[in-house]
Specification:
The chain has about 375 residues and is mainly alpha-helical. It has a domain of about 90 residues. The protein contains 16 helices and five strands. The strands form two sheets. Strands 2-1-3 form a three-stranded mixed beta sheet. Strand 1 and strand 2 form a beta hairpin. Helix 1 packs antiparallel against helix 2. The longest helix has 29 residues. It is elongated. The chain starts with a helix and ends with a helix.
């Protein structure tokens, strides 16, 4: 056996040993009910070991990153970059076909991650630059009917590659992170919401219910924990890319309704937007109706005096206030002699009096 072959065999042996060790630790933590984060972290590391094209082992909240140029930990990269790298990769994939003896577990209601990390992989090409992602086929198809219809379609030549040229790299990176960890971090800054909204659109497009729920929850928690509300730009983007009954629309418009009801006055940019987008205005009204408020807590203008509203209109200049003068005409108003009027004094109280009627009155 040559030194290169011996080194490659040692790499495979270390890989298999480490994989079994992580499984034992994972199920040991599960038996102790250690918590989801630690357990998922180990499972994600196992996913990394099952697939040698993942550059670094992921954490539950750090999305996966793939590359064809970097393989496995740095200490092992030299072996994989040798002339036998291709053969070694095939050997590792062949090894992954056989189940690990430590994987035997009782069936659970929801499919655990290890059952979805099969040997079959698929190639996904994302964006205009065709960023290459290699994912576990069974896991991807279990999560999404969209991909299930693509990769499980009955055909003689089964396709294991699919392109998503209209998607962006960063939202898809978040999707892959969610795919393997089943969780999403709450954004720390408002600017980070953009990728989450893109990810939500993926969830609706690919019919992934759990992804939709998790994105909605992350967006909701961001606004609630930061005590802020959705901006107009975010709302307009969602309205432009979602159907009428979209859950994301309901979340945002309900939040905006609360912001407008509890706020002081109408912000100018919202005023213009609601005048232009009638559907948004209607949705805000419907959101308020869905609150089912106690009628005793809702002001009733029919029961109050109207004088305050008139005073307010006068202050705003909507109604001109009557000016009190001492017999002086207001500026710009001229006194007119009745002889200068076309009909003289013939019009009185809106009734036309002819000269004959005036003479008749004088005779009497």
């Amino acid at each position: 056996m040559t030194s290169a072959e011996g080194q490659n065999s040692q790499v495979l042996a270390n890989l298999q040993k480490l994989r079994r060790s992580i499984w034992r630790k994972a199920w040991g933590l599960a038996d102790r009910d250690c918590g989801f984060d630690s357990f998922t972290s180990l499972l994600c590391k196992l996913a990394w070991l099952y697939h040698p094209c993942i550059a670094t082992p992921p954490s539950p909240f750090a999305p996966l990153s793939y590359s064809q140029d970097t393989i496995l930990p740095r200490a092992w990269q030299a072996s994989y970059q040798s002339k036998t790298a291709g053969q070694l990769l095939e050997k590792h994939r062949e090894l992954s076909k056989y189940p690990d003896p430590t994987l035997a577990m009782e069936d659970q209601k929801e499919r655990p991650l290890h059952e979805l990390l099969s040997r079959d992989m698929v190639d996904i090409y994302v964006g205009s630059e065709n960023t290459h992602w290699i994912l576990h086929e069974k896991l991807l198809c279990h999560r999404s009917k969209f991909f299930r219809d693509i990769f499980y379609a009955r055909s003689e030549h089964r396709n294991r590659a699919f392109g998503l040229p209209d998607e962006d790299d960063e939202p898809f990176r978040l999707f892959v992170g969610w795919l393997y960890s089943a969780s999403l971090p709450v954004p720390k800054e408002e600017k980070d919401l953009g990728n989450l909204f893109e990810l939500y659109l993926m969830g609706e497009k690919w019919a992934i219910k759990n992804l939709i729920v998790d994105v909605l929850d992350a967006v909701r928690r961001f606004y609630y924990e930061n005590q802020t509300y959705p901006g107009l730009r975010r709302v307009q983007y969602v309205y432009s890319n979602t159907p009428m009954d979209s859950p994301m629309r309901q979340l945002l418009v309900g939040s905006v309704a609360r912001f407008l009801v509890l706020g002081e006055g109408m912000p100018q940019h919202w005023d213009k937007a609601l005048r232009k987008n009638g559907q948004l205005a209607v949705d805000i009204i419907l959101a308020v109706q869905n609150w089912k408020l106690d009628e005793d807590k809702v002001p009733d203008p029919r029961a109050d005096s109207v004088e305050p509203s008139v005073e307010q209109a006068i202050e705003k200049g909507t109604i001109k206030q009557e000016e009190v003068t001492d017999g002086q005409l207001p500026d710009g108003v001229k006194e007119v002699d009745k002889d200068d009027m076309p009909n003289g004094d013939a019009m009185t109280n809106g009734v036309h009096h002819s000269d004959e009627e005036e003479e008749h009155d004088n005779d009497e």
